[in-house]
Design goal:
Nucleotidyltransferase, domain 5; five-stranded mixed sheet; 21% strand; 8 helices
């Protein structure tokens, strides 16, 4: 069976899986990225983990390539450049270094994780019949993969879609990991939601479970659970987050007019608490010419493997081009 090694490099976890041409992930695992601050040790871990997955698969497997999704990744240069959520700084020639450990004939491609997710949605997910859509990844940060006229917008140097660092406050707001004041991901992300909970506690004097929880002990699922219980701070935090995201998505609509925004990542697990106010505000912010034409969708790819399959799509996309 032909398989692709899909690797999703995140600030918290590195996920690895074996993906077939239909987008099915046959084996998968993860390890914690921050446990490997030494780059050589990290790459050795990727190689060892890939070998372990192949052994677990237990059948004849023909590995046709390795696709990698990562923050601040250049598809043109095979590098990761100054990623704010990763421990390795500067320009990291990840593809070149990984090739030294893997089969030297194996094609290895890297791309911004959200752009890779957009390819995954085109090949395996809910965007199979779409030519214009934007994938939004809502994890530790905010990522965007843009497809227009059936083509992924990759950019001159492979860094298109850094919409998480668009200033939403005219330079008078929270800092993103790349030092942008008022940048979107400082508000709309799992991390941004936590910061908003702290902000709401300073703004309102209502009782809340969060008044006895330190920032580092606060998790997204805690905020969702609190919203379920009617915690006013949690509800205000979700509403505030949704309003800012709605304004941003309405702005993004104006430059490519997508058929849909496809949302994935940890923040989407909050369900109606983020989606209901998002839909309300989004339709309010849209220009009249776009109203009723742009859908807000959840990714149809399996949550735990969506990022892995998106990374694998970098290789499967090339395979399908060769067949055509």
């Amino acid at each position: 069976m032909d398989l692709v090694i899909g690797i999703d490099i995140g600030g918290t976890k590195t996920k690895i899986g074996l993906v077939d041409e239909t987008g099915k992930c046959h084996e998968k695992t993860f390890f914690r990225t921050k446990e490997f601050p030494n780059l050589d040790a990290y790459l050795d871990k990727i190689k060892a983990t890939s070998d372990e997955l192949l052994a677990q698969f237990g059948k004849d497997a023909n590995i046709i390539g390795c696709g990698i999704g990562a923050p601040n990744a250049s598809s043109k240069n095979g590098t990761i450049e100054n990623a704010s959520n990763l421990v390795w700084k500067g320009s990291v020639p990840l593809v070149k270094l990984l090739k030294q450990r893997m089969d030297t004939d194996m094609p290895i491609r890297i791309m911004n994780d959200a752009s890779a997710a957009a390819l995954g949605e085109m090949l395996f997910g809910g965007a199979k019949n779409m030519t214009d859509f934007i994938v939004i990844t809502l994890g530790t940060g905010f990522g965007a993969g843009i497809v227009a006229n059936g083509q992924l917008i990759d950019g001159y140097d492979g860094f298109a879609g850094e919409l998480g660092h668009v200033d939403m406050t005219m330079g008078d707001g929270r800092l993103t990991g790349l030092g942008v004041k008022g940048g979107l991901e400082a508000y709309v992300s799992a991390t941004g939601l936590k910061r908003t909970v702290m902000y709401m506690q300073s703004k309102y004097l209502v009782d809340s479970r969060f008044r006895s929880i330190a920032y580092n002990d606060l998790h997204g699922e805690d905020i969702t659970q609190a919203a379920e219980e009617g915690d006013e701070i949690a509800l205000k935090a979700f509403d505030y987050t949704a309003r800012i995201m709605a304004q941003a998505l309405a702005n993004f609509t104006a430059f490519t007019q997508p058929e849909a925004f496809i949302l994935m990542g940890g923040l989407t697990n909050s369900g109606k608490w983020i989606m209901t106010p998002l839909e309300k505000y989004f339709n309010g912010f849209l220009l009249d010419v776009y109203k009723g034409k742009v859908k807000l969708l959840h990714s149809s790819m399996e949550g735990k493997t969506a990022a892995i399959c998106g990374a694998a799509a970098l290789i499967w996309e090339n395979q399908k081009k060769k067949i055509v």
